[in-house]
Amino acid sequence: MNIFTRRKPQPTPDAGLPDSMAVISALPVPVVVLDAENRFCSANPAAEQFFQLSFSSLAQISLKELIPEDSRLFALVDQVRGQDAPVSDHDLTLESPRLHRTGVAAHGAPLPELPGAVVLTLQDGSKAQKLDRQLNFRGAARGASAMAAMLAHEVKNPLSGIRGAAQLLEQSASEDDRELCVLIQDEADRIRNLVERMEMFSDRPIEQGAVNIHEVLDHVRRIAGRGFASHLRIVEDYDPSLPPVWGNRDFLIQILLNLVKNAAEAVDPQNGEIVLSTAYHHGVRIAVPGSKERVHLPLQVSVRDNGPGIEEDVRATLWEPFVTTKQGGQGLGLAMVAKLVADQGALIECDSRPGRTVFRLSLPMPPADLPASLETRTE
Ligand SMILES: Nc1ncnc2c1ncn2[C@@H]1O[C@H](COP(=O)(O)OP(=O)(O)OP(=O)(O)O)[C@@H](O)[C@H]1O
Ligand SMILES: [Mg+2]
Question: Which of 5, 161, 233, 269 has the greatest number of beta carbons closer than 10 A?
Fold first, then answer.
């Protein structure tokens, strides 16, 4: 029996709530349940459409009759069973005569009620593109790094000459002219600041180590609380058992400071709230460019705010440099975040709607063969 579409709603104590099977059946995302032998036990209408087979036909076959057995989807399903935990793969290609070639984001989770069974959602290519857009922060970061190196090289030296000359002139200038000399120096400082921010984009070797992310968050919270977010509520929602992350402490501080600053600038000064959270998620894996390897990024750090959400017209280019809606904004914060995240082999995603914007950073664990003495190092 297809539990998603064939079951009559069961009376429950929560009589006001819709039946959960009816909800799954109404979802536009294909959802199937596979039994321990990978036979289809259930499929919602979106899955019937995805596989172009009715549930009564799907019920006669197993997954391997639809998808070649060497597909990574089977590895994902086995992993869910082996770890008894959810696993995701954001970048899977399913190839078969029936499906042709389809890019999907697959998510599998165990179903405790049915031993060995796995609930599988397959988000098709166009939806997975949303994630692509989130991943395009890598491309944005590459473009910016060449420009940064050029800018830093060409601008910094003449600029310090200009500033020095204005400082010298100031000593012998009249009252009125002195004001102009100060203006030149201030503007030169502003340009130097901008160039120094841009310099962060250039490709420098990065040192990674085991970092205590709660110590980093605490540091960021203190800087924010004493400065730009002193008027706001900052809530901490941490998983204290989280192991160290593999990354660069300074980069992580830069990333989180930029995210918290954006959140602080977005929320209402009267009732703005920023939530910093950490959690362990089994499932997140990303492909390493140019290799078949997939990196496991189970350590999640989120910065959430209750502001109005990201404006529609900046969403598509969110991670690119010089994209800003703020008066006086440089539009460099998120471009820098993108660069520093990519340098650490991590992933950043953003979900935003009015009243709730979340930037979610997924980080790797330290390599398994790291000496135990380094594991507790907080740098
Ligand atoms: N939490 C948020 N809520 C709403 N909009 C946001 C949020 N974070 C970023 N944005 C939008 O993304 C744009 C780009 O952010 P980014 O940090 O790159 O630049 P900026 O904050 O405008 O300037 P800079 O960081 O260089 O001072 C912002 O101008 C804003 O429109
Ligand atoms: Mg910013």
Answer: 5
Strands (E), 97-232: 100-110, 118-124, 209-211
Residue 275: HSE in the Cβ half-sphere, 13 Å Cα cutoff:
15
Given a contact cutoff of 8 angstroms between Cβ atoms, the answer to whether 260 and 307 are in contact is no
Shortest-distance atom of ligand 1 to CA 321: 18
Is the distance from the beta carbon of residue 323 to the nearest atom of ligand 1 less than 6 Å?
Answer: yes
pTM: 0.61
User: Residues 288-335: pLDDT tens digits?
Assistant: 555 556 678 899 999 999 999 999 989 888 988 888 999 888 888 998
* Three-class SS state of 130: helix
Q: Say whether 291 sits in a helix, a strand or coil.
A: coil
Please tell me the predicted confidence (pLDDT) of residue 154. 75
pLDDT tens digits, one per residue of 11-50: 444 445 556 677 777 788 889 999 999 999 999 888 888 8
The Cα–Cα gap between 261 and 244 comes to: 24
Beta bridge partner(s), residue 121: 31, 107
The torsion angles phi and psi of 316, rounded to 5 degrees, stand at: -65, -25
Phi/psi of residue 335, nearest 5 degrees:
-65, -40
- Which ligand number lies closest to the CA of residue 335? 1
